[in-house]
Amino acid sequence: MAVGSGHSPRPGRFSSPDSPIASSSAAVTHYHFITGRLAEHALRQVLAALAPSVPFDYSVEVLNITVAALMTPAWIAARLHCPAGADKVFVPGYCAGDLAPIAAAACCSVERGPRDLRRLPQFFGRPVANSGYGGYDIEILAEINHAPSLSREQLLQSAAELRAAGADWIDLGCTPGSIWSEVGDAVRALRGAGHRVSIDSLQPAEIEPAVQAGAELVLSVNGSNRERAADWGCEVVAIPDDPHTLAGLDETVDFLASAGVRLRIDPILEPIGFGFAASLGRYLAVRQRYPDVEMLMGIGNLTELTDADSAAINVLLLGFCQEQGIRSVLTTQVIPWAKTSVRECDLARRLVFHAVQQQVLPKRLEPRLVLLRGAEPLPHEADYFSNLAAQITDHNYRLFAEQSALHLVAAGLHLQDRDPFALFAQLLATHPRNLDLGHAFYLGFELAKATTALTLDKEYRQDEALDWGFLTAEEKLHRLPRTPAAPDSKP
Which of 1, 75, 155, 171 could form a disulfide with 57 if both were Cys (CB 3.0 to 4.6 A apart)? Predict the structure, then answer.
């Protein structure tokens, strides 16, 4: 294996094969990593720990430039010395543009690594660890609340958005105390758009035209309407007459079963403070009483009626459903903190399915559900910023948010403070020559993001969107033009 001895190699050359493990099998894939002088030490540390566990052989080529992020494909290609037998060249993640010139010079394939070299373990290992991830067996019924008040266009648009978020069924929520005269037309329109439709009503006068128009599932059936259900010819959801005691449920289930009506059971989830824990117990009791019957849980009573972001609540409830064989959930997304419940449930059902099927913890499997906090911040070493300031030669500002402070670094300059206004005041006190109005606005924007990241223990990367899980809105590169990239000496 061509690995450096710890001394800096000559500019533009890769490390000599003087490692004790240089004689490893030639069958192992050999990767050639390109970096700059500033990142060399950190890259070697990461690779030395990572390579034996993947495994792969590797070499490191340190080109004659301080900051690897400033390299371009053409610049690398003109200076590259790829060792014979290398299977792939990895260039820094910030190396933008067509990699074809590097591939031509290296005579092998080229790939960008992660933008942060500390992410190399995940870059190489996580796809293998999560092989086969993504299956599920829980259906999502997404309710359109107050459906009778929507125009046909609004109804179809809402249904399309819910399906795109992961809904398997579109549930039409009717208005208690009134009869929706146009329910049949609404169901036909949804069916014509390719949706599976359920009708959420206890009123036979609404249910029957909906079923005739193509609704396949009725929510809900109890002692008040079960005798009519035998004529509907579709699947129904059986609920108790009294959720707190399950009164009437057995009678409804027996009646529907004897009439040959397909059914699911929903014992009814109660809000916190109104019997939540006891209602979970009733799901357990019903599952024990009816071990082979399909069940449904309406989860909106918790997500809509609790002052908390809905994502974690949805994960917990779907985890309960997965363990108990409850294969369908009914969700709504009306209240602002539950506006993305369908998407959350779609991600959560995959996470809990994998955890239960593979008997692994639901941890570090689905980063898209970690929304508010940071999934796995990677702080730099304590002296990183002072070393960076001593080594870089340009006056472009680099921002960081870690070690309980905001950091601003340029050539010979390292400022830090928890308060972005205080940090900016420190910068002004240096009488910078490159701080025009546009640059000041840019720094203010980035410092706002960095402060948010620091507050929430998120990872901050300059010029990139903060990671909000599946809610992340990617940003276009808004960095101001930097000092032109150039090597520190000619090759």
Answer: 1
Q: What is the DSSP string of 308-368?
A: S-HHHHHHHHHHHHHHHT--EEEE---SGGGTTHHHHHHHHHHHHHHHHHHT--SSSS-GG
Report the range of poorest mean pLDDT among 119-123, 288-292, 322-326. 119-123
Question: Residues with Cβ < 8 Å from 103, sequence gap 6 or more?
Answer: 89, 109, 110
Pairwise pLDDT comparison (129 vs 410), residue with the higher score: 410
Which H/E stretch holds residue 287? helix 276-289
How open is the CA angle 367-370-375, to the nearest 5 degrees?
Answer: 70
Q: Give the strands of the sheet with 30-35, arranged side by side.
A: 57-62, 30-35, 88-91, 109-112
Classified as helix, coil or strand, 40 is helix
Q: Is 213 helix (H, G, I), strand (E, B) or coil?
A: coil
Q: How far apart are CA 174 and CA 98, in angstroms?
A: 55
Report phi then psi at 108, rounded to 5: -160, 175
Token digits of residue 398: 């680099």
> In 340-357, which positions are buried (b, 16+ CB within 10 angstroms) versus exposed (e)?
bbbbbbbbbbbbbbbbee
Q: How confident is the model at residue 27 (pLDDT cuts 50, 70, 90)?
A: low
User: Cβ(351)–Cβ(369) under 8 Å?
Assistant: yes
- Whether 485 and 72 have beta carbons less than 8 Å apart is answered as yes
